[in-house]
Here is the input.
Amino acid sequence: MIDKDNFHPLNYIKKEEYSGSMDGMRYLLKKVKSGEEDVIRVTVWPEPLGFASTPETQKTSAEVPLNKEGVEQAADWLNEQYETRKEYWMENQNRAWTDIKD
Here is the structure.
C-alpha cells in the first residue's frame, strides 16, 4: 500500500513522469493537459510489461488535480485499484516471474 504521508512526488511530476510498482501492479503519474488546466493522469496496468509495451485495453486511468491534494487523491486511487483487483495483480506478478524463470 502507498503511504500518503510519505508519497510526495508532486515536484517531480511537474517535470517528469513518476512510475512505480506494487505486487504485480505498475503505475505511472504524469502531468497532462485537461482542457486549460494541468492535471495528473494516474494509470495502472499489470506486470510484466512497461507502459509503452502494454496494450491500452489493459490500462486504467484517472485524473486528479496537479497539487498536494491531487497527489493524496492519486495515492488513494492507487490503493483502491490495488485492493479491489489484488488477485488480478498477484496473478500477473506470478505469471511474470514464471516467464522470467522459463
Observations:
- The first helix runs from residue 10 to 13.
